[in-house]
C-alpha cells in the first residue's frame, strides 16, 4: 500500500480510493480502487511483482510499446482495455489500471458472487451452470477476440478462464492477454502438469474447452480432459458434443475450427474486427514473446556475430598474399610458366665506411703561444730525461 501511495503521488495521474481484499488468485498481486485526478470514475489498479519468467526488458521503452499496443487492441469490442501500465524498476513492480464493472467476471456470474469479495470465499461449486443461450453467446464472442489477437501476431493467450472474462452490461470482454507478455504463470499449468509443454500450440483450445465445461456444469474441470464422470453430469446437454470435439485424443482443433462448429451456428457475429496497424516495435515485442528469445540475448548475439565477421575478415586478409607453396608451384616446370634465363649478377660495390662526424670548430677557443710551444715539443718528440728509481724497501741490519 505504501508503494502504491508513493507512486500515485509521484506521478499525479491517479488518486487511490481504497485497498481491496484479495479478489484474485495471485498471491503476489494487490488490488486498489483508484480514480483519475480529473475524473470521479472508479477503476481497478493492480500492483504486481515482476515475474522472473518475463522475457521483455523491464524498461521505459517496453512500457511505451505496451501502452501503444494495448491502445490499439482495445478497439475490439470484445477485448477488455488496459487503460494504463507502468514499471517501478527499483521495486520490481508492475502497475496496471483497468475499467471497473459492477457485474464482475464470468466466474462471478456462474457462482452468483460479488466481484469484490475475497477469492477464497466467493467461489463455491454448486453444480449449476448458466443458460445455453449465454454459453453460446459468450463463447462465440471470446472466440472472436482470441482469433483477433492471433491474427495480429499475439502469442497464445494461455490464461483463458472464467475469471478473465469481464461482463459489462450486455457485453463480454476477454482480459488477461497481458499476462503472457509479462511472463506470468498460467492457472492451467497446474491442471495439465506433464502435458503443459506438449500442448503449447493448442493451449487456448484446451482452455476454451475448460471454460465451456465450467459454464455448463457450474464447477471447474479438475483434469486435463473430461472424464466419464464429468460427461455423465452433462447428460443430454448439447455442450457434450462440443466438448468431445475439443478434447480429441488424436488432435486438438484450432480456434477457427471451434468457431465454425455447429454448436455456434445460430449465434451471429456481433461485430466485425477493427482494422488496426501495428508498428515495427509492437511486432518485434510480440515476436520476442512468441519465440521465447529475449531482446538482450539478441543484442549480444548480434555483437558476437559482428566480432566473428570482423575476425573472419582479418583471417581472410593473409590469404590474399601468395604463400611459399604457391610461389613454388608458380616456378615449377609442371605449370609451364615462361621463365627468364638465369644470369648471375655481380653484387654492387660496397660503400666506404662512414667515419665519425667532424666536430664543428665554431666554438673552439684560439690557441695561445705557450700552448703552441708545448704542442710543438710534443710533435717533435722531445726526449724526456731518464729517471733512476732507488729501492729502499730492503730491511736495514
Task: Count every helix, treating DSSP H or I runs of 4 or more residues as helices.
Answer: 15
* Spatial order of strands in the largest sheet: 1-2-3-5-4
The CA-CA distance between the termini, in Å, is: 121 Å
If you compute it from the alpha carbons, what radius of gyration comes out, rounded to the nearest whole angstrom? Answer: 45 Å
Number of strands: 7
Regions with pLDDT < 50 over 5+ consecutive residues? 297-311, 313-345
- Secondary-structure element order, as H and E? HEEEHEEHHHEEHHHHHHHHHH
* Helix/strand structural class: alpha+beta
| Beta-strand percent range | 5-15%
Defining key terms:
alpha+beta; two-stranded antiparallel ribbon; 7 strands; five-stranded antiparallel sheet; 38% helix; 397 residues
